[in-house]
Amino acid sequence: MALDFTFTPSTHPTAAERIAEIHSDPGFGKHFSDHMVRITWTAGTGWHTPEVVPYGPLMLDPAAAVLHYAQEIFEGMKAYRHSDDSVWTFRPFANAARFKRSAQRLALPELPEEDFVAAIEQLVTVDKQWVPSGGEKSFYIRPFMFASEAFLGVRAAQEVTFLVIGSPVGPYFAGGVKPVSIWLSSNYTRAALGGTGAAKCGGNYAAGLIAQMEASAQGCDQVVFLDAAERKYIEELGGMNLYFVYADGTLVTPPTSGTILEGITRSSILELAKELGLQPVERPVTLDDWKTGVESGEIREVFACGTAAVVTPVGRLVWADGEVASSGSGEQTLRIREKLIDVQYGREADEHGWMHRLA
Predict the structure, then answer these.
(1) What is the dihedral of CA 110, 114, 119, 123, to 10 degrees?
(2) Contact at 8 Å (CB) between 354 and 92?
(3) Directed axis angle between helix 92-105 and helix 264-272, to 10°?
(4) Could you give phi then psi for residue 303, rounded to 5 degrees?
């Protein structure tokens, strides 16, 4: 049975002039719309009290389980304003399915996929004026769920809160589409078999922040992690999946295999590749494969992908005593990026049925 949302409008909505000012230079994740969606789950009752309420601080007990045991998951997606003023999002049911998988891994209740999508529709319908237009601007949507029960025992929470907030954003990398430099983390790993690598939970990102700080100290934009078992296989960046374009037209990405997040953009590129004359393959890629492949010219391009940055070319891989730079033109990377963005913004036919109208 579909949830029936109630709506409490903000008593202090942001003025249209201020929204326009924010849209002129939104940055990424700095400004938030006037409302948020909230649904509560309690053991024995299930999901209840679905509502759209004014955006604002949360009243959270100091003993809330999430603050002590990090029982939390989230998703990231975008809404795009098309030329006819309608607003759409990209593959929301794929995000909803991944959200359920993450909930299973973190011992959280599963929110039905139709309710996940309905919550997003509610927020965007109410705050449609916050969806920017022009260039690569969009409305970043952050659904998340956390253990809100006040209880210090170590067990799955008996009360959980689901929220959706939204933020007008520009490109993730302020400098635009240009090759990024990647620092190879030799001291830290992101995930191990049996861990939470395939779940989208905050702990994965928190554990990677020190490696990202190390990358920044080395003058690099992002960090890449190796597998925890053998320290030889490429896994993913701190928040993006990786692809390698080979000279023979093969497009390779490491298999998820339980330690890599199953990115929505990643899976979409696997489907688009053949349409662009590439042969998509999921197979392990070693650090030596990357180094020698680029040096020999066998690997022509390397790129990272994710919801926030879409597709970003990788220019250099840097480690403690060396580096290797991709020498390709980036032609295939940019073709893939353009194809995805044109579908998302309604400039190209959606032949896969990926777009979902929100408002």
Answers:
(1) 150
(2) no
(3) 130
(4) -145, 155
SS3 99: helix
| Two structure tokens written together for 87 | 């607003």
Map tokens 């194809």 to a residue. Answer: 339
Amino acid at 275: E
Under 8 Å between Cβ of 314 and 328: no
Residue 113, classified by CB atoms within 10 Å of its CB into exposed (0-12), middle (13-18) or buried (19+), is: middle
262, burial (CB in 10 Å: exposed 0-12, middle 13-18, buried 19+): middle
What is the rounded CA–CA span in Å between residue 123 and residue 145? 16
> Cα(first)–Cα(last) distance of the chain, in Å?
22
Question: Tell me: the pLDDT tens digits for 192-217?
Answer: 999 999 999 999 999 999 999 999 99
Structure tokens at 244: 């390698």
Contact between 123 and 52 (Cβ < 8 Å): yes
pLDDT in tens, 309-318: 899 999 999 9
**Entry pTM:** 0.95
Q: How far is CA 95 from the centre of its chain?
A: 9
**What separation in angstroms does the CA of 273 have from each of 44, 76, 240, 284, 347?**
46, 23, 18, 18, 19
Strands, E, within the chain: which ranges?
6-7, 35-42, 46-54, 72-74, 77-81, 87-90, 138-147, 159-169, 180-184, 222-226, 234-237, 241-246, 250-253, 279-282, 299-306, 310-319, 322-325, 355-357
